[in-house]
Input
Amino acid sequence: MAAIVWLVAGLLLAAAEMLTGDLTLLMLGGGALITAGISFAADTSVVGDAVIFAVVSVVLLLGVRPVLLRHFGKPPLTPTNVDALSGKPALVLETVGEHSGLVKLGGEEWTARPLDPTEEYPEGTKVYVMKIDGATAVVWKGP
Output
């Protein structure tokens, strides 16, 4: 009977993990499932089950969870999409001022504005993308 309780507890904890996503409940659910298996096979006492659950859960929380977090929790190594455009050079196609401008960036034409609104970059100037603001490249000529 105790094995069924541990089995249900393990499944509920594993299912509840979908709501949190930090892998804690999954590790506790794994501890409960392992306890259910041992309890079924060895017919252990309630105190024995509690000790098994505690030991297995601590091992999973301290040993397995950090490895999984490192593997699945890291951001992409290479920036993609607009994140990859910061720092890239661009060529001014139409004078870039506070309210208008056009640059060629990575083979595409982008509307642009200067990082410092008081500056203006004439056609043919090489500038660098500081950030992307919506569909507008915020550029700077540099020092």
